[in-house]
Amino acid sequence: MNDRRRLPLPRGFWWLWTSTLVNRFALFVMPFLSLYLTVERGYSATQAGLMVSLYGLGGILGSLIGGSLSDRWGRRPTMLTGQLGAAAFTLALGLAEQLPLIALWATALGVTLKMSQPATGAMLADIVPEESRPRAYSLNYWALNLGFSLSALSAGALAAFGYLTLFVVDAATTVLCAVLVFLKIPETRPAEPPAARSGNPRVSMATVLRDRRFMCLVGLNLLVVVVFTQRHVALPLSTAESGLSTAQYGMVAGVNGVVIIALQLAVTRFTQNRAAGWVLAAGALLVGLSSVLNARADTVLLYCLAAVVYTLGEIVSVPTSEAQVPAMAPTHARGRYEGVMVLSWSLGGFVAPLTSGLIIDTFGTDALWAGCAVTGVLAALGYVALLRPRTRKDGVLPSAQAISQE
């Protein structure tokens, strides 16, 4: 088994990996959207926050739509539709001046950007053999973060030429990604089994939601995502309370990308042969521990240490969690299962800022960090309880078909 894990990944995976890198690099607009709306368009912070929330709401819808379409229509057309739609709505958003139009295009952009994500995850599972998926998901996640880091560096320079430049280059790069998918990545959707084609049974989105074991996995991922999101919500407030400058906070925030790029592949080599339940539990505990460190930190060094611990938890958890989705999903329903898992990320990113702001205003940042630490522990216990009893020796969950036969 160890020798098989060292086999080269299929060529199709590397084209998909390249498209992921290009697509992530194209995301210039979203990190600057609130700043663009307040500085360039003159809207209030509340109005800008609402537009960003609508983008998140669109992402919730897009994850479900993309998951269903990738099974019904195909991975490739879903990806192309999402990418070309995102390019069009990015340009429309950059040209819109009235708030109702900005709200419409921001929501549509959220839908189309998220549409392609379940299709990408399902296609990766179609292409890569089961025993190599943890490594493949890790490489794909590494590409996401490398692309984001390059995007953040490039966006600052592009913004100097005017905010519209961000929208134009973002749209053009997204079209480039679609061209790459069109030319180099064939359709991979597996054929439905005869029973599914005859209509008995057919896996629908409702079927996925009734899969209690999988939905428990999604719920645990949602808990971890809520804690993940605090780096964008509670962390800047904590550093400000500690007297750190904006530049110092930027240094702390930058630790995440540096550690991922430097250590992601090495950590995956260490974790990929281990039981998934224990790996995910360790990741949740590390994220919880980082919350404790954030609550105690008062210097740049301590906040950076917390960021390292948090990032280690992230790079342990995310690829391992993603690899469980195709292992639990019927082959012809991977897109829907991927869509529901992506939904947990979108929902966590939408709900966490609302609840954390209320907790901070009522009880303070220390109380929020304490709650995050407890959440990390609860998620760790949940992962062990959910995955340990039925985990195979290779640490990957049995398929949905195998579970149904137990």
Care to describe what's here?
With 406 residues, the chain is mainly alpha-helical. Helix content is 80%, strand content 0%. The chain is built from 18 helices and no strands. Helix 2 (11-25) packs parallel to helix 7 (133-159), helix 11 (212-228) runs antiparallel to helix 17 and helix 14 (276-296) runs antiparallel to helix 17. The radius of gyration is 21 Å and the shape is globular. The two termini are 24 Å apart.
Please estimate the helix content: over 70%
Strand-residue fraction?
under 5%
What is the succession of H and E elements? Answer: HHHHHHHHHHHHHHHHHH
Instruction: Quote the distance from N terminus to C terminus.
Output: 24 Å
Estimated structural class: mainly alpha
Radius of gyration, in Å, reads 21 Å
Secondary structure tally, helices: 18
Biggest sheet statistics:
none
Shape, principal axes of CA atoms: globular
Weakly predicted, low-confidence segments = 1-5, 391-406
Mean pLDDT rating: 83
Counting DSSP E segments of at least 2 residues, the number of strands comes to: 0
Short description:
With about 400 residues, the chain is an all-alpha fold. The chain contains 18 helices and no strands. It has helices at about 1-5, 10-25, 35-40, 45-70, 75-95, 100-125, 135-160, 165-185, 195, 205-210, 210-230, 230-240, 245-270, 275-295, 300-330, 335-365, 365-385, 400-405.
